[in-house]
Amino acid sequence: MNNKIKISDFFVQLQQIDFGHMLYLLSPTIIYFIARKPIESNYRLKKDFRIGSVKTASLPTEVIRKFGDINEEEILKKQFGELIMEFVKIVKENIPEINLAIFINNLNTLQTSTKNFKIINSIFNRSTEGQYIPENNAIELSENNYNITINHELFHASTTINDKDTGMIYCGFQQISNKKKQIGEGLNEGYTQYLTEKYFGKENSLNTAYTYEKRIAETLEIIVGKEKMQSLYFNANLNGLVEYLKKYAPEDDIYKFISTLDFLNEHMGDKYLIPSSKEMIKSGYKFINSFLIKTALRKNIIDNPASQLSTEEVFKCLIPILTLIPNSVKSKNDSFQISDDNLIHDAFTSVLSEYEMSDDRKTISK
Predict the structure, then answer these.
(1) How confident is the model at residue 86 (pLDDT cuts 50, 70, 90)?
(2) 364: domain range?
(3) Is 152 part of any domain?
(4) Does 88 share its domain with 212?
(5) pLDDT per position as a tens digit, 126-142
(6) What's the DSSP call for residue 63?
(7) Residue 28: CB atoms within 10 Å
(8) What's the number of domains the chain is made of?
(9) Which candidate, 169, 249, 310, 344, has a CA 20 to 30 Å from the CA of 238?
């Protein structure tokens, strides 16, 4: 009996194997070995971008063009062209024209296509339905849910500068270096989702997408102000956001806030978290709440023209902040109690200690 097989026959058989189906069947095992790895006990919040490493993007010459120069005829030829033009209409109605240079340039050259994310989602325990690839200025969308994910991805496309000279990518509040080090992903995804739901409605969005990050970004917008926050976002100016916040918070705390939100965005949905990992995540949640409370308090005190302020009036400025920041967070696998009266009291007391108080502690002198 001859068991030899010809090379040509081998390749024929190889081509008949459904590797996608095989990978799908193996994915639970792969997921187990990927997801069971805990966060390292010596993990330090990302130091890829140290203080001062966040840069300001300079718009390429070809981007500085006449505003309103949208090539509608060419866009309508693209896949999802009508949905893109609807996005253009809504954004131009709500965002000042001076902030739309990146938006106009990128949408004219945007590439669009569909992609099946099923296997990738199974392997990495994700629920991706669309993605923007800044290096190619391209959007890939699931065939099933493209109508409720396209606007989120179009916001990414509208706020990205790919600096080919330095290899830096500036995307809203996120920056990625040519070595793939990055900062600001959590804040960028949260604010992008917030704007998506604000201007296109929750019914046209995946309601479970970036729920926590969205609330933190919305809270930060209250502190920064809508016009300023949107201007920084549409001009891909994370550095400008840091510089603005430095008036009201220490620089180290600002970077820790951004990096902590990145850390939570990456790990809060992890399975099989060991107790020390859960404690790190809970600590991150608490730091973010404390940072937002302290920054809002300082802004209210510093920006107030009066030389003396009542502590009661200062505290009232926290009401919108305390309404938004979560007291607890529930992920797919865990629940965290993160904010209580003690956290609020400690943040309030810490900020007041930076100023001169009256003997009865009812007024603050700047």
Answers:
(1) very high
(2) 268-366
(3) yes
(4) yes
(5) 666 678 999 999 998 88
(6) G
(7) 10
(8) 2
(9) 344
What does the block give as tokens for 7? 């090379």
| Helix residue ranges per DSSP H, the chain | 7-16, 19-35, 72-77, 81-94, 101-109, 118-124, 146-157, 185-200, 211-224, 226-234, 238-245, 251-267, 275-303, 311-316, 319-324, 341-352
Question: Are residues 120 and 70 located together in one domain of the fold?
Answer: yes
Q: Provide the 3-class DSSP secondary structure of residue 156.
A: helix
**Distance of alpha carbon 281 from alpha carbon 260, whole angstroms:** 9
Q: For 179-194, what is the mean pLDDT?
A: 92
Report how far residue 22's alpha carbon sits from residue 316's, in angstroms, rounded to the nearest whole number: 59
Q: What does 193-254 look like in DSSP terms, one character per residue?
A: HHHHHHHH-GGGS-TTTTHHHHHHHHHHHHHH-HHHHHHHHHTT-HHHHHHHHTTTS-HHHH
pLDDT of 165 > 50? The answer is yes
C-alpha 186/C-alpha 189 separation (Å) is 5
Q: What is the pTM of this model?
A: 0.84
**Contact call for residues 209 and 318 (beta carbons, < 8 A):** no
Nearest Cα neighbor of 183 from 200, 170, 193 is 170
- Residue 114 makes CB contacts below 8 A (sequence gap 6+) with 79, 140, 141, 142, 143, 146
Question: What is the sign of the dihedral through the CA atoms of 286, 289, 293 and 299?
Answer: positive
- In this structure, what token pair is assigned to residue 192? 């992008």
CB distance 131 to 122 below 8 Å:
no
